[in-house]
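Supplementary Methods. Inverse-folding protocol.

Structures were first reduced to a discrete structure-token string of length 268. This string, shown here, constituted the complete conditioning input.
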């Protein structure tokens, strides 16, 4: 009987402590409900996909800063690394989205001390060969989604998964749309694949055809519902680990956490 009372008392204290911590962290503010909005601005003229980021729409599109995940679960060696500042993002990244009737546009500026990409052919798993940006797009009301890559040497990949439960099957690594209709333009301030120097940044523009995104019956543009994640692999000789960063910020570095993707907002 005394043991039961003791356990009950401990649980009560834990519950009260938990509520107190929640209130303290919130500092009087409510936790946002639902996905983080990520705005894509309408472009009145087609974006010139050359990597320069000098089109008018980029001057009015919100700029989103990439972040490390809130907690790192992978790999075990990184979790055990207790060096001060190990969890600080060293190479910042910025991303923007735009759209028109024919394309969804991605623009990025990734500051990068060591620009590297050793893959030389399209439709490859570039996260294993160097730096890249990954764009994930998922219609809200369906299970399928796209995983689209752009690299600093202008290469591209499009994977399409019928659902997260089919990841890893060979069929998921076939092009999810006409690869030739996906446009990529890059500009580099630095040198590619030279570990001996220090680089500045690389910029990229990507155009994803609307007809590819709607081939399974989904709608696109204002009134449609999509989820989005912009992600980055950053390799550098100057960093202690490969950096994985995203918009929106994830709870852990897993780019397939569909529930944590942002809500794509089409503004016109």
């Amino acid at each position: 009987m005394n043991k039961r009372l003791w356990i009950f008392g401990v649980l009560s204290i834990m519950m009260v402590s938990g509520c107190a911590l929640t209130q303290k962290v919130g500092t009087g503010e409510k936790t946002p409900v639902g996905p983080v909005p990520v705005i894509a601005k309408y472009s009145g003229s087609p974006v010139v996909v050359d990597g320069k980021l000098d089109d008018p729409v980029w001057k009015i599109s919100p700029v989103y800063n990439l972040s490390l995940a809130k907690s790192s679960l992978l790999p075990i060696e990184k979790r055990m690394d207790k060096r001060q500042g190990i969890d600080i993002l060293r190479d910042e990244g910025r991303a923007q989205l735009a759209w028109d009737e024919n394309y969804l546009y991605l623009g990025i500026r990734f500051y990068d001390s060591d620009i590297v990409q050793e893959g030389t052919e399209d439709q490859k798993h570039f996260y294993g060969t160097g730096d890249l940006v990954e764009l994930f797009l998922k219609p809200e009301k369906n299970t399928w989604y796209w995983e689209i890559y752009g690299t600093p040497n202008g290469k591209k990949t499009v994977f399409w998964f019928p659902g997260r439960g089919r990841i890893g099957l060979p069929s998921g690594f076939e092009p999810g749309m006409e690869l030739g209709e996906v446009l990529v333009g890059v500009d580099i301030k630095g040198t590619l694949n030279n570990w001996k120097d220090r680089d500045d940044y690389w910029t990229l523009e990507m155009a994803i055809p609307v007809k590819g995104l709607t081939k399974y019956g989904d709608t696109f543009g204002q009134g449609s519902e999509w989820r989005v994640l912009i992600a980055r692999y950053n390799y550098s000789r100057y960093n202690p680990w490969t950096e994985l960063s995203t918009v929106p910020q994830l709870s852990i570095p897993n780019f397939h956490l569909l529930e944590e993707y942002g809500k794509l907002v089409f503004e016109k």
